[in-house]
Amino acid sequence: MRDCLFFVADSNIEFAIRGLFERRGVFNIIGCSPFSFDPKQDLAVARGQNDPGLYARAKDLIQPFHGTHGRIIIIMDEDWDGTPGQVKIEEQLNSHIEAAGWGAENGKAIVVTPEADNWIWSDSPHTAAALGWESFEQIRNWLNSQGMWPENMPKPPRPKEALERVLRLKCKPRSSSLYRSVAGKSSVKRCLDPSVELIFSTLREWFPLKN
After folding, report:
1. Whether residue 199 has pLDDT greater than 80
2. Signed CA dihedral, 119, 121, 125, 127: sign only
3. How far is CA 48 from CA 44, 53, 61, 154, 168, in A?
4. Per-domain boundaries in the chain
5. Region 83-109: what's the mean pLDDT?
6. With 80 as the cut, is the pLDDT of residue 24 above it?
């Protein structure tokens, strides 16, 4: 039986998880005991489904893994056409997890608000370099001048649109590899995203440090 399955809505989240677990000392960063993770076995994508399909059909999509993985984390965005909002999404996904055979203590639905592009906005020189800019402060100042990042907010309110704008200005494509690069190098402590902390706290609960 494998330790934990990460079942995600799209390739951007997939590559962010890959980047995280490729980091040296990842379990120290998370603050949990080591557990087995192989992206070929422990990371699955709802291909062809994206957020709406995963929301509607999670039980059927994850059930084949019940016999192979002791725990499961489902990760998806909140912001999509027809979204019922974070609370409703979490409630439905958690009910699908239980219906697929995992108890509530062995499964967790995590909804990124508004979307996984929020993870990109970590105040780090690695983030700036990945986006093709000289510094993160330069990015923030430019987005502020465009009315896309108010000074009193820790992240752009529309993270996907902000990301597309700063990449377009530098003639860089928006690709899944970008999420892998940022997750693999940028400071997790600077990410300041509740969904990342929920992933970490869940893993700390499931795989506590040993005395």
Report:
1. yes
2. positive
3. 12, 8, 11, 33, 27
4. 2-117+191-206, 120-181
5. 96
6. yes
Which top CATH class is 2-117+191-206? alpha beta
Q: Kindly report the three-state secondary structure assignment for every residue of the chain.
A: CEEEEEEECCHHHHHHHHHHHCCCCHHHHHCCCCCCCCHHHHEEECCCCHHHHHHHHHHHHHHHHCCCEEEEEEEEECCCCCCCCHHHHHHHHHHHHHHCCCCHHHEEEEEECCCHHHHHCCCCHHHHHHHCCCCHHHHHHHHHHCCCCCCCCCCCCCHHHHHHHHHHHCCCCCCHHHHHHHHHHCCHHHCCCHHHHHHHHHHHHHCCCCC
pLDDT range class, residue 179, cuts 50, 70, 90:
very high
pLDDT of res. 190: 66
Tokens 């509530």 belong to residue: 104
Q: Which of 45, 32, 46 is nearest to 3 (CA)?
A: 32
Look up residue 196 and give its two tokens: 């990342």
